[in-house]
Amino acid sequence: MRLEDDQLRRRRRRRRRREGGGGSAAAVQIVYVEKPEGEEPEAYHIRTLASVLGSEEAAKEALIYHYKTAASGFSAKLTPDQVAEISKKPGVLQVVPSRTYQLHSA
């Protein structure tokens, strides 16, 4: 049952990435942030993203993944203007495009 839920979520995310919001120039970005103190990382990520997108609902829709172990940050689908705006926010260290690499095996 859990595996089916995970597969369904992945399919929805892939579809959203392909559709791109009706011709917008949005792309998946990784946003590295300072580790929040006194606040859950997920809540901090949503609050930071909502400050650019205008609402928590929009932030949750754009958010793809939370990074909490090796790095502090999140990935989200953002337009170039949104990248420029979120880059100026306090606590945001860096915003980089997400890249997918294909593995080749012999």
Automatic annotation (TrEMBL):
Residue ranges, annotated region (Disordered): 1-24
Domain Inhibitor I9: 30-104
Basic residues bias spans: 9-18
Protein name: Inhibitor I9 domain-containing protein
Alphabetized Gene3D superfamilies for the sequence: Peptidase S8 propeptide/proteinase inhibitor I9
